Amino acid sequence: SDDALLVHIKVIHAETRGGYGWPRTWKELLARGIRVGKERVRKLMQLHGIRAKGKRRLKVTTDSKHDLPIAPNLLDRQFDVAEPDKVWVGDITYIATDEGWLLLAVVIDLFSRQVVGWSLRQDMTRDIVIDAVRMAWFKRHPRKHAGLIFHSDRGSQYASEDFRDVLAQCGITASMSRKGNC
Predict the structure, then answer these.
(1) Alpha helices in the chain (DSSP H)
(2) Which end of the chain, C or N, has fewer beta carbons within 10 A?
(3) How many CB atoms lie within 10 A of CB 38?
(4) Which carries the bigger pLDDT value, residue 180 or residue 112?
(5) Domain-by-domain residue ranges, the chain?
(6) What is the pLDDT of residue 100?
(7) Cα 15 to chain center, whole Å?
(8) Residue 128: closest CA among 96, 158, 168
(9) Which residues pair with 106 in a beta bridge?
C-alpha cells in the first residue's frame, strides 16, 4: 500500500538526512528489495512534500578587492612550526543555523593546531577578527618580542587599519597569502 511504501521512503529520507530526491530514493528502495515503479515514488514524495535538500552554496568570505595595505607572505606555505606561539593563522567561515547565517573567525596556533581564539557574529566587520586575536592574546600571553607571526588571507578585515593596530600593540607581525591562495 502507499502508506507502507511511504514509511520506507521516510526511513530512507531520514537515514540520508534529506540527501536523496526521488530517483535515488527509488534506487535505494529497489536495492532493499522493494519492487516499486519510479513514478509511484516520485508522486508519493511530491504529494507528501518529501524532497532532497539543495546543495549549500559556497559563501565567499574574502574581500580582497580593496586599497588597504597587504602584508608580505612571511609564512610561504611552511605550515610545520617547531614551538607554540610562533605562528598563528586566522580565517573566517560561515555557519548555517536555523536562525540564519553566523560568521566564525578563528585563530589557530600552527604548532598545536589548536584554536586559541575565536569570535562569532552576525556581521563580517573587522571587529570579528580583532576579537578573535584579542582572545588568543589574552588566553596565551605570548612574549611581545618573540617574533609571533599572524598569517591570513588578504581580506579587508585583516588588512584594516584597526586590525593592524591591534597586531602592532601585541607585537605580532602580519603575513598574508598571495592572491587567490588562502
Answers:
(1) 2-15, 22-31, 38-47, 126-140, 156-159, 161-170
(2) N
(3) 14
(4) 112
(5) 2-47, 87-176
(6) 82
(7) 24
(8) 158
(9) 91, 118
| Residue 107 near residue 136 (C-beta atoms within 8 A) | yes
Q: If you search the block for the grid coordinates 597569502, which residue do you land on?
A: 177
Q: From the centroid of its chain, how far is CA 67?
A: 26
| Cell numbers linked to 31 | 536495492
Q: What is the dihedral of CA 151, 156, 159, 164, to 10 degrees?
A: -100
Q: Give the up-direction half-sphere exposure of residue 107: CA atoms within 13 A in the CB hemisphere.
A: 28
Q: Cell match 539543495: residue?
A: 54
Express as a percent the part of the chain with pLDDT over 70: 90
Span 70-94, pLDDT tens digits: 876 877 777 778 888 899 999 999 8
Task: Specify the CATH architecture of the domain 87-176.
Answer: 2-Layer Sandwich (3.30)
Question: In which residue are the cell numbers 518529501 written?
Answer: 50
Nearest to 125 by CA among 89, 163, 98, 99: 163
Q: Can you read off the three cell numbers belonging to residue 173? A: 607581525
SS3 63: coil
